[in-house]
């Protein structure tokens, strides 16, 4: 049964169409993450689901009930806002129980719910404080507590962690994951943070300009992106896009990369990853997508990909991050970033022999930007 | 002590001294009329005609105050301004309360429940702040007549409420604009409705702007003369009108001390309000947004 189903939802603000026929369905207990650049309509979609803004067209169903024209209160939804939106004049306890009070839950039950939630989020000691007396992380917990006190069909989180510092964000991320595993709640969650998206989601929806470009598991979205935008949006540092020319024929496709001041480089495209679409592209320019981790050092035994395609390049920038080293080097018409082990000893200007794992590379049409193979 | 580190040269200190002297002088200048009124109001008549304006009273007396309150003639009657003083309260209190409540609801609706044309409506209401009173005197008299409220306190209350709403709406709208809309969204999701959200979420954070609205309305309505003189009868006149009548009633010697005492009585409530709540007034006007 779908906990939440959105069918062809459209939203116009004046003449501007912000949501363009968005459709998606979420199973009960699923954790869906919405990602996309600023202004693509994520918050608008959340507000539409919550009933805070009427949609222009389309249908929204929650727990198999048409809620398109129901008020927010009637929808059985709880939402955590980026700004937390705690009621400033109420104590934490009152904040958490307000929703229950409005729904005429008896006092004893309300108190039990507050205890349960406070226990779960470890905010029992804060119950009698006002929001102004809490730190950012504590406010965030209270905001979650307010949502968890009721047990609605769907939880909406609009960038709940973006106001926290990096360390706290990681802690809360883990905690949200644990909560989800423990409570089995259905969650729609908006974030800008790649890692949040990859670690929390059962499925990720990548949005752009009011469309959902791709809806899939984190693995699908990361390794099998439908187009250049999705490929570039997910992952940090992001995927390298290299202009190449496709040569050869079915069974023996090759990619020719011309780098200024170097010999042309020819990379064979693995036969196992051929698609019929490639045939029309022979002789034309296609875009090769390689993630930084698709590169490895020539003699690295750790990476376990000895059969990668060898490649040599002049390193222009070396950026150690601690856990590994990011190398920049010119390849084709662009600078590419490669991620190598922390032990790699290379100085800017030196040549380095690398291997690239073509088995995980992706190809895009240079005009439509769509995935070719 | 203020939190500033200053130069401590002789020149700097002298400049500072000059600055304070100038400020003190300006303050005295502004206080002078009040001081003259106060001094005159407790002087017997013969001292006034004999001495200078600023001379302190030789034998201070409260007789002029008592007379102003209870016996002085305001036109045909000689009952002092006391009764009119209470009249003013009977007009001001409901008018302030109603216009503040309506302004708060307007501001809330205009910011948190926007509807098509709400900005235009607000613009039109703002216009109400700039309408000269004289323009509406005749139509208002006509309207009060139709409503059967001519010359009544209720009629004056209505007039003041209507005029006050433009200002109170402006105050509350500008205050509520800064309150995060997400608070209201959260409350909607929690199941609260229009009035519940107002009562439980917004009103508890509105104290600063309520103070502003009450002080503003109180002084405006208390000090009003034009509406008071135009729309009241003998027994419903506010104290400002009575004061004018008292001063203009000429029977024999002019009793400056009684005039001054009556003026002090008429001005006292607004003075008290400023002294007691003035700092909240400034605080409310400069209050920042509410953090959720
Ligand atoms: N009330 C509104 N009136 C007019 N346009 C609006 C309104 N709300 C949002 N928009 C427009 O809709 C588009 C999508 O906004 P939305 O807030 O959904 O973006 P978002 O994906 O949540 O961005 P962010 O990641 O920055 O939060 C933006 O171009 C915005 O300007
Ligand atoms: Mg947003």
From TrEMBL, chain A:
Keyword set includes Iron-sulfur: no
SUPFAM superfamilies registered for this protein in UniProt: MOP-like, P-loop containing nucleoside triphosphate hydrolases
The organism's place on the tree of life at top rank: Bacteria
Span of domain ABC transporter: 4-234
UniProt keyword list: ATP-binding, Hydrolase, Nucleotide-binding, Transport
Signal peptide range: none
GO cellular component assignments: ATP-binding cassette (ABC) transporter complex, substrate-binding subunit-containing
Biological process per Gene Ontology, one example term: carbohydrate transport
Pfam families: ABC_tran, OB_MalK, TOBE
An example Gene Ontology molecular-function term: ATP hydrolysis activity
UniProt-listed Enzyme Commission number(s): 3.6.3.20
Keyword Hydrolase (UniProt): yes
SMART domains, sorted: AAA (SM00382)
Family annotation (NCBIfam families): PRK11650.1
Designated name of the protein: sn-glycerol-3-phosphate import ATP-binding protein UgpC
Species this protein is from: Halomonas lysinitropha
Upper lineage: Bacteria, Pseudomonadati, Pseudomonadota, Gammaproteobacteria, Oceanospirillales
Name of encoding gene: ugpC_4
UniProtKB/TrEMBL annotation, chain B:
Protein family membership: Belongs to the binding-protein-dependent transport system permease family.
UniProt keywords, alphabetically: Membrane, Transmembrane, Transmembrane helix, Transport
GO biological process: transmembrane transport
Superkingdom as given in the UniProt entry: Bacteria
Organism: Halomonas lysinitropha
TM annotation in the entry: 17-39, 84-108, 120-142, 154-176, 197-218, 260-282
Protein name listed in UniProt: L-arabinose transport system permease protein AraQ
Membrane topology: Multi-pass membrane protein
UniProt xrefs under Pfam families: BPD_transp_1
Location(s) in or outside the cell: Cell membrane
């Amino acid at each position: 049964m779908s906990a939440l189903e959105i069918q062809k939802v459209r939203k116009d603000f004046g003449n501007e169409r912000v949501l363009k026929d968005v459709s998606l369905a979420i199973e009960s207990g699923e954790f869906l993450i919405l990602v996309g650049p600023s202004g693509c309509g994520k918050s608008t979609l959340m507000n539409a689901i919550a009933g805070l803004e009427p949609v222009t067209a389309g249908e929204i169903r929650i727990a198999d009930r048409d809620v398109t024209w129901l008020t927010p209160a009637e929808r059985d939804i709880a939402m955590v806002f980026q700004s937390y939106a705690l009621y400033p004049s109420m104590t934490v306890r009152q904040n958490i129980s307000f929703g229950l009070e409005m729904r005429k839950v008896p006092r004893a039950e309300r108190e039990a719910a507050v205890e349960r939630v406070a226990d779960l989020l470890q905010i029992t000691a804060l119950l009698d404080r006002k929001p102004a007396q809490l730190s950012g992380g504590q406010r965030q917990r209270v905001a979650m507590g307010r949502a968890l006190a009721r047990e609605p069909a769907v939880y909406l989180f609009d960038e709940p962690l973006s106001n926290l510092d990096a360390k706290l964000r990681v802690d809360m991320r883990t905690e949200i994951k644990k909560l989800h595993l423990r409570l089995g709640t259905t969650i729609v969650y908006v974030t800008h943070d790649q890692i949040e998206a990859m670690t929390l989601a059962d499925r990720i929806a990548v949005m752009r300009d009011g469309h959902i470009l791709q809806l899939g598991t984190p693995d699908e979205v990361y390794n099998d992106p439908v187009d250049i935008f999705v490929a570039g949006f997910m992952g940090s540092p992001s995927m390298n896009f290299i202009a190449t020319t496709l040569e050869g024929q079915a069974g023996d496709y090759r990619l020719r990369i011309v780098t200024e001041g170097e010999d042309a480089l020819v990379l064979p495209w693995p036969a196992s990853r051929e698609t019929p679409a490639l045939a029309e592209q022979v002789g034309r320019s296609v875009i090769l997508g390689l993630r930084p981790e698709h590169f490895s050092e020539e003699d690295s035994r750790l990476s376990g990909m000895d059969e990668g395609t060898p490649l040599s390049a002049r390193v222009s920038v070396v950026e150690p991050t601690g856990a590994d080293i990011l190398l920049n080097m010119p390849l084709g018409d662009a600078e590419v970033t490669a991620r190598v082990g922390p032990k790699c000893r290379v100085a800017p200007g030196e040549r380095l022999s690398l291997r690239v794992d073509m088995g995980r590379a992706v190809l895009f049409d240079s005009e439509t930007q769509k995935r070719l193979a | 002590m203020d939190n500033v580190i200053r130069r401590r040269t002789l020149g700097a200190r002298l400049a500072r001294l000059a600055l304070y002297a100038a400020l003190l002088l300006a303050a005295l200048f502004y206080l002078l009329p009040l001081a003259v009124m106060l001094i005159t109001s407790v002087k017997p008549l013969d001292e006034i005609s004999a001495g200078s304006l600023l001379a302190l009273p030789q034998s201070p007396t409260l007789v002029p105050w008592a007379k102003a309150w209870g016996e002085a003639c305001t036109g045909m009657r000689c009952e002092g301004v006391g009764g009119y003083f209470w009249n003013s309260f009977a007009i001001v209190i409901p008018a302030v309360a109603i216009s503040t409540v309506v302004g708060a609801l307007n501001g809330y609706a205009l910011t948190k429940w926007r509807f098509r044309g709400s900005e235009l409506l607000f613009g039109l209401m703002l216009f109400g702040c700039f309408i000269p009173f004289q323009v509406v005197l005749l139509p208002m008299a006509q309207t009060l007549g139709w409503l059967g409220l001519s010359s009544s306190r209720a009629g004056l209350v209505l007039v003041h409420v209507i005029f006050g709403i433009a200002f109170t709406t402006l105050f509350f709208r500008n205050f509520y604009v800064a309150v995060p809309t997400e608070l209201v969204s959260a409350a909607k999701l929690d199941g609260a409705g229009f009035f519940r959200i107002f009562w439980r979420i917004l009103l508890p954070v509105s104290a600063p702007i309520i103070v502003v609205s009450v002080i503003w309305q109180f002084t405006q309505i208390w000090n009003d003369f034009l509406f008071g003189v135009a729309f009241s009868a003998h027994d419903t006149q506010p104290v400002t009108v009575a004061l004018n009548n008292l001063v203009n009633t000429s029977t024999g010697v002019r009793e400056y001390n009684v005039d001054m005492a009556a003026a002090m009585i008429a001005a006292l409530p607004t003075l008290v309000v400023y002294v007691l709540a003035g700092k909240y007034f400034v605080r409310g006007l400069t209050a920042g947004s509410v953090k959720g």
